[in-house]
Each structure stands twice: as structure tokens, then as C-alpha cells.
Amino acid sequence: MASFATFHLAGSHPLRSPFPTPTMTVLRPPSRSLSLSFPSLNAVETKADPSVATTEFDFKGFLLKKAESVNRALDLAIPLIHPKRIHEAMRYSLLAGGKRIRPVLCIAACEIVGGDEAQSIPPACAVEMIHTMSLIHDDLPCMDDDDLRRGKPSCHRAFGESVAVLAGDALLALAFEHLVDLRNYPSSIAIAPAILVRATAELARCIGTEGLVAGQLLDMESTGLEDPVDIDRLEFIHLHKTAALLEASVVIGALVGGGSDSEVERLRRYAQCIGLLFQVVDDILDVTKSSQELGKTAAKDLASNKTTYPKLLGLEKSREFADKLLRDAKSQIEGFDSSKAAPLLHLANYIAYRQN
After folding, report:
1. What's the CA gap between 276 and 240, in Å, rounded?
2. What does the pLDDT average to over 157-183?
3. Which residues pair with residue 148 across a beta bridge?
4. Could you tell me the pLDDT band of residue 292, with boundaries at 50, 70 and 90?
5. Which residue of 109, 111, 159, 166 is surrounded by the most CB atoms within 10 Å?
6. Dist. CA 222–CA 232, nearest whole Å
């Protein structure tokens, strides 16, 4: 089991980057465990990260404000037009709530490199549309077969399988249209077409056969096996299925915000760390929380004999691994302006200590 101590972002995450990414080795996690009880969303870990300003950052207020901006934009992006039923299904899943972590990451990445919220809203909406598409398709009987999503019946349970498939397809197409349509951006801010082309390629790559699709396929093929998959295969699955879209969210936010190549790549590595962290924590919550607390079916991975980090490493080692990933993510945003880095620091904490 000791092999999980070495985590090579560049080696085990073959998503192509236009820039060289140095190998990052995560050392064996310390013996202390990561407690998943998070007392306050506003807690500031100034001792753990001296690069962050000591003044308190209202993370809860930040998260709510950014999520509200995204929700308003998403509501406007999908009006109830003909054919009404497909747009109802799209809106049902897209506006069903959720933490909006990916679009908020996109906005925060844009702002940390000097951009502002207004220019990051279109890509933020695009990644949330794609995320919702992945949830709709993931819940289908031919995939993970889940009847509950965000505390409500899954899209296919509410609208039928065929409409759910089409709703996901439509959201995927709309995401790219929304990303590149210059009318969605403030007229006062000129977004270079080359930047939008690069952002589109980044997003497409992270959700295709080098990203989300690859992870989903291997996840399905690894479910129900008599013997659990090894740690390298599990890492590959989650770096692609979960981390890739988080990576795209951060990278395209930094691109539209005018980030330099070096800034974009540092933020890419930050996103890879929190992406894997997100899945480790998700696996832990699956075996420690109820369906009511999670808003989705609890212990489903255990019931389907799916390999998870707690199953492979044990609960305590999984918590230690999460702790290490959190610290490595924070190290990538050292050197940025502390006030602008505060949202990404707290987003990493939020992902690590979330309860659902």
C-alpha cells in the first residue's frame, strides 16, 4: 500500500500541456490525520500559509456572491423556448443547486492574475454546463445508475432516459457556444480571439478522451472487479474523471484573465492537486455520511464494489493523503498577491473540509 506515497503530477497525468510541467513528487503523508470536521467556512489558516494576509477573509460571503452571479447568468443562458421539454430538462439539472465549485474556481483564477468577475462569467458558466452534463450522463442506468442528484430525482428519473441523454448533449454544445460568443463578454474588455481558441482547446481536451471520458471509461471498467485496482490506476481514473474539469476551470479562467504562461501552469498544478483532493474527500464522505447529508446515495461505491481510496488505503491513510494534497495545492499559489490568492486558498480548504 505504500506506493500511494509518490504522486507524480506530470507522469501520471498525461493530459497534454503546451508548456513543460516539472514532475512534482508528493512525499509520504505525515502520521497525523486530516480531520474532516470543518468548524467554519470563514476560518483562516494563517499559521499554515504565511503567504496569505492575516486579515480575515469572508470566504462564505465570497462563495455566495460568486455563486449568485453564476446562477443569474446560467438562468439567462437557457430560456424556456421551443422545444420546451428539452430546455426544461436542461434547466432542471443546471439550476438544481450545487456548490458551484468549478465556476467559482474559474472566477478566482481569473481574478488572481488580474482579471475581473465580468470577463470570467462566460467560461465559468461553460464549465458548469459541462459539469452538469457529466452528472446527467453519470447518473444514467448504463453508467453509475443513480436515482438521486443534489437531493432531487436524477434527470433521467424526472424526464426519462432519452430526454436526459439529449439534455446532456445540448448542455455540452451550449457550453462551447457560450464560451466563444463575444456578446457574452463585457464590451469594455477585449478578449483576444486567440485566447478564446486556446481556452476552447483546453476545455475540449480536458473533457475528451484525454480527460473526463478516459476517466469515466476506466472507472466503469474497474467497477465490480473481484480484486481492487492498484493505486496507479485509481489515480489515473480520478485525475481524469474528476480533476481534469477542475483543471480546465482554473486554466481557462487564468487565460481569459490575462495570466502569463508561468502563472497559468502554476495554477494548473494547483488545480490538479485539488482535483485529486476532491475525489479523495468524496470517497471518504461516501463511507462516513448518510444519503440525507450528501444529497445523493451514500455508500453506493461500496455497494457496487468500486475501488475507492478508503477501500485501497484505509480511511486513516486516505485522510493523510488528502492532507498532503491540500498542502501541495497551497504551495502552488505562494507568490501571488495574498489578497487575490485568498479565494483559491480557501477554496482548497473548502474542498478538503466539505461535508457533502
Report:
1. 9
2. 97
3. 153
4. low
5. 109
6. 12
Q: Does residue 29 lie within any of the structural domains?
A: no
Buried b (16+ CB within 10 A) or exposed e, 39-58: eebeebeeeebeebeeeebe
Inter-residue contact 87 to 79 (CB < 8 Å) = yes
Mean pLDDT score across all residues of the chain? 83
Q: Which domain holds residue 320?
A: 59-353
Cell of 62: 465570497
Where does residue 194 rank: exposed (0-12), middle (13-18), buried (19+ CB within 10 A)?
exposed
Cβ contacts of residue 185 below 8 Å, gap of 6+? 118, 119, 122, 191
Task: Measure the CA dihedral 272/274/276/280, to 10°.
Answer: 180
Residue at 210 is within a domain: yes
The fraction of the chain above a pLDDT of 90, given in percent, is 66
Give a yes or no: residue 39 inside a domain.
no
**pTM attached to this predicted model:** 0.80
- Quick: pLDDT tens for 69-89: 999 999 999 999 999 999 999
Sign of the Cα pseudo-torsion (59, 60, 61, 62, in order):
positive
Mean pLDDT of 272-286: 93
Best CA proximity match to 206, nearest among 130, 290, 92: 130
CATH assignment of the domain containing 187: 1.10.600.10
Q: Name the domain count of the chain.
A: 1
Q: How many CA atoms lie within 13 A of 313 on its CB side?
A: 24
Residue 52 resides in a domain = no
